[in-house]
Design brief:
The structure is a homodimer of 362-residue chains. Chain A is 41% helix and 16% strand. Chain A is built from 13 helices and twelve strands. A six-stranded parallel sheet of chain A has the order 2-1-3-4-5-11, with helices on both faces. Chain A has a six-stranded mixed sheet with strand order 7-6-8-9-10-12, with helices on both faces. Chain A binds a DNA duplex (30 and 30 nucleotides) through helix 3 and helix 5.
DNA sequence: CACCTTGGGAGGCACGTTTCTGCATGGCCA
DNA sequence: TGGCCATGCAGAAACGTGCCTCCCAAGGTG
């Protein structure tokens, strides 16, 4: 059977294979492969000729075949823990969305594409996609997905310090304790006498570290802890918890909320109780939303810098995939940023509107 | 060379191939494949035996080989137009994040994974990933990416009515004209005499359709148009444009803002000019953020239902991939939802806080 | 003239599946 | 007893690349 016949039989009308290019250019498959990939010893004339023929035929190399042959797919996974049937929770939404966006950008800039896969996904989805490596967000202790991945020899980089002895390749995280302590000191400096905390009931690392840091700070300065915990994945529960916190007999004169919607919820609750912010109540919450720059009053927020984390995580992962021994340490701590606005400044409240923030370096 | 030798040479220590399973189970490759995929004529005993051996060896079928053989990768692309170097713009961020989340969920529920790819990505990324089909968001007229994809015979479903004669397989969109007209009527009903518009300078379909609908409505009711346009991708420009709109000599007594941050920006501008909302100024903006439920006052928002759109788009795409002739029409119009809050109700303003919204069906 | 080097390119195997085809066996019926 | 069908599996051909090996011709060198 002639080569022309072979190539004609296998391919559907729309798709040209490397064999078709070779036949049309009058060269061998090897030459086509070498010419298009910049390898081998070929004169420029041949290289250009092959490229031109390939363009004319609209040739696109088969990603599946290349992956099978080289063992590299150019795909990295982004694994998130799921609550219910949604890929990510409501409260972490802004953080996760920003982080995923930055990760996508960073991956694309290095020639990789990013696939979002929930940790508890149907098994067939996981085995249907060839991954070169995976980013896991806040993996739980003894996470079965991570173990399985490292068993397959794939690099795994974690957003969030891995609990227990999870064998991740690298990890990136904030210093949550330092962030909470910084905020509590900031509130105390602004005149707070009793600082309350709005926290979550779930057992993830972020909630746990932040809460214990708060409790230790209270112990150190001799304040009774005043906090309300609620299921953070329930968007309605936050408003109720904020209300409960301000309804307590030992009502705090300053509150830090660990989750994104806590700021508006606390503002609304303060209005209901006739509390002026910041005069009667100082407010800080952890959020990535720029809307807090133009609320009444503007609310001081702690940014966890999801964009920097997403970028760093992907860089570490791709370095590991490509065997680059990164100059960066395999454990990176990204500093948080406290964006101080009116809600946490009792002295000399700014009357001017705080300048709009640039979208970069968030 | 014996089969055992063959299988031992090719595979790395960590990964077991189908040949290893066949050898360990004492059957042929065909039998393993049939047993694991539920095909062929095999007694249950053989099937169970093969499955057990495969589990014991930790066998995971190679996605690349399967894709190469079957032509189906189980991956669908989500293509977004880029402004600058980021995958999606700042103003569309909440909409896009929600839409992408819903699309991811819907894809996973049907056994597919979703890859986010910017339209103007480096070409090697596009050719490195095997896609079964693609969702494009708001494709421009004569979009080269779409043409290329349909030339390859891949189904393409569009979020947003395709401009020109773009040969998409199906599309999903809101009725933006009807939405704008509904809002303008709503504001007029609430007592507005001169309604202003905060719009964008870019030429995408959403901005264009909404603005022309506004202009036609003005013509019909005999009102002079009062609008300010600003580059929507610039997060700072919105605040300036909101300020400009309220500083005009023909200051409107009601404003509709086309983009997500317009609500807080307009609220801040109104405070600067001493305008009470809703008494002196009625306010509506298009947003997916639940924060507008607890601003002061709560702001009426138009939701474009990104979750329903993301789900619908993916369903249509997978139906097309799998050759299902969908009962649904290939052109779906998703209704928008006007969430009426205090900012657009001059009569009987609600003093109670509007109930927190459920996260579903947004 | 024999030998080596270097450029230019072809042959063919392997990656790990899926699946088409076909072989053997045994039971059933005419 | 011979044909026939159902059952239970094995062989082997693809799928489309990448790359290792090898071949050939043209010079250069002793």
């Amino acid at each position: 059977m002639s080569r022309a016949e072979t190539s004609r039989r296998g391919s559907r009308p729309g798709r040209a294979g490397i064999r078709d290019v070779a036949a049309a250019a009058g060269v061998s498959i090897t030459t086509v492969s070498d010419a298009l990939n910049g390898k081998g010893r070929l004169p420029d004339a041949t290289r250009r000729h092959v490229r031109e023929v390939a363009d004319r035929l609209g040739y696109r190399p088969s990603a599946a075949a290349r992956t099978l042959r080289t063992g590299k797919s150019g795909l990295i996974g982004l694994t998130v823990t799921t609550y219910g049937d949604e890929p990510f929770t409501f409260t972490e939404f802004a953080y996760f969305a920003e982080m995923a966006r930055a990760a996508t950008s960073a991956a694309l800039a290095r020639g990789y594409a990013l696939v979002i896969l929930p940790a508890t996904s149907r098994h067939d989805v996981w085995s249907n996609v060839a991954l070169d490596g995976t980013v896991v967000i806040d993996p739980s202790d003894q996470d079965p997905v991570v173990s399985e991945l490292v068993r397959q020899g794939l690099p795994v980089v974690s957003d969030g310090r891995p609990a227990g002895s999870l064998p991740v390749t690298a990890w990136v995280d904030n210093d949550h304790e330092a962030a909470v302590l910084g905020i509590l000191d900031h509130l105390a400096d602004a005149g707070a006498r009793r600082i309350g905390l709005l926290t979550g009931t779930s057992t993830d690392t972020y909630t746990h570290l932040s809460t214990t840091a708060y409790l230790r700070w209270c112990e150190r300065v001799g304040q009774d802890p005043v906090y309300e915990a609620y299921p953070a994945h329930d968007p309605c529960a936050g408003a109720v918890a904020a209300d409960r916190l301000l309804a307590r007999p030992d009502r705090p004169d300053a509150v830090y909320g660990l989750f994104d919607p806590n700021g508006t919820d606390l503002l609304a609750a303060a209005r209901r109780y006739g509390l002026r912010v910041p005069d009667d109540l100082l407010l800080v919450c952890c959020s990535e939303s720029t809307m807090y720059a133009s609320t009444e009053p503007p609310v001081t927020t702690l940014s966890l810098k999801p964009r920097r984390i997403g970028t760093a995580v992907v860089q570490l992962l791709i370095d590991a995939i490509e065997g680059v021994e990164s100059e960066q340490p395999v454990e990176q701590v990204i500093p948080t940023e406290l964006i101080v606005r009116t809600s946490s400044q009792r002295r000399s409240p700014r009357t001017t509107v705080s300048p709009p923030r640039t979208p970069d370096d968030r």
